[in-house]
Fold 5-hydroxytryptamine receptor 3B.
Amino acid sequence: MILLWSCLLVAVVGILGTATPQPGNSSLHRLTRQLLQQYHKEVRPVYNWAEATTVYLDLCVHAVLDVDVQNQKLKTSVWYREVWNDEFLSWNSSLFDEIQEISLPLSALWAPDIIINEFVDVERSPDLPYVYVNSSGTIRNHKPIQVVSACSLQTYAFPFDIQNCSLTFNSILHTVEDIDLGFLRNREDIENDKRAFMNDSEWQLLSVSSTYHIRQSSAGDFAQIQFNVVIRRCPLAYVVSLLIPSIFLMLVDLGSFYLPPNCRARIVFKTNVLVGYTVFRVNMSDEVPRSAGCTPLIGVFFTVCMALLVLSLSKSILLIKFLYEERHSEQERPLMCLQGDSDAEESRLYLGVPRAEVTESPVHQEHRVPSDTLKDFWFQFRSINNSLRTRDQIHQKEVEWLAILYRFDQLLFRIYLAVLGLYTVTLCSLWALWSRM
C-alpha cells in the first residue's frame, strides 16, 4: 500500500513538472543564451577586420533649455539615435519561433565610442540599459540626452538675434578605417524635422543642417558628422518690456529741448528723466545678455542716449551758473558806485560846513548851494548812465552767449533725433531680417 501511494505521488509530480513551462525552454531564452554565450564585447563585431563598421546617426532637437551668453554655453535636449550592424548577433528566425527582434543589455555588447566634441559638462540622460537587435544583426540604440555644449553666441542684434551652434559627432579612438559614420535619414528630413520641438519656449528652431567630412590629424583620419542647430529668439517680450519703455523715455527727454535753455525748471526736468532712465537701466540690466566679446546694439544705444542726456544737463547747469554770476556782479557794481557817491558827498558836506561858517558870508552861501546841488546831480546822473551802459553790455553778452547755447542746444537736439532715428531704422531692419529667416 505504501508502495502504491509512492508511485502515485511520483506520477503526479511528473505530470505537474511537464505541464509547467520552464524559462530555459522558451525560444527567447534559448536565442539570448545562444547569442551571448560566446560573445566578446571587446572585439569589433566584423569577421573581416579590414572592413569598417558603419555607424548611422540621427538627431532630433526636442527643446532649448538654456542659453548662457556670459559663459558661451548652450543647453539642449535632443533625441539621439545610433544604428550599426553586429555580424556576431544574427540568427535564423525560423529556428526560434519567427522571432525577428529582441532586446539585449547594452553593457554586454560592443558599442561605438561616439562622443560630441563640444561637450563642456557631464552628459545627463536617463539610464536606458537595453538596445534592440534584429535577426540580421542590426542594433538600434535610442536615447534622450541633455547636451551642454560650447557655442559662440552673438548678441549684437539682441533681441532679434539668431544663434548657430554645432554638435560634432566622431569616434574618439577609431579612425575611419575602423569606424565610419553615415546618416540614418535623409539630410533634408533631418533639417526640416521640427515635430518634436517644444515651441512654447523663448527660442524657435529654424533648422538642423548636417554635414559629413573627414578630420585629418596626426593620429589618423577620423569620420565626423556635424549637426548645425540654428535657433532664433522670440523678441516680443523684450520689445514690450525693454524697447518700447526705453523709446518712450527718449521721447520724453526730447520734449525737454523745447524748454528755454536758461530755465531752471529744465534742469529739474532733465534730472528727473536721468534718474528714471538710470532706474530703468538698473531694473532691466538682467534682461540684456552680457558678453565679453560682443556688446548688444541696444546697450550701445542706451549708453549714447545717457551720454547725450548728461551732456545736455551739464550744459544747462553751466549756463544757469554763468548767468547767475553775471547778474550778481551786475547788481553789486551800481551799489558800489552809489555808495562811493554818498561817501564823497558826506565828506564834502562835513568839510564844507565849518569853512562856510568862518570865511563865507550868507549872501555867498545862497549863491553856492545851487551850484553844489547841480554838481552832485550831474555826478549821480553820470554814475547811473555808466551803470546802465554796463548793464547793457552785460545784457549784450548774455544775448550772445544765449545765441551760442541755443545753437548748441539745437545741435544736440538734431544729434538726438539722428541717433533715435538711426536706432529705430536699425531695429526695424533687424526685425525684418529676423522675420525672413
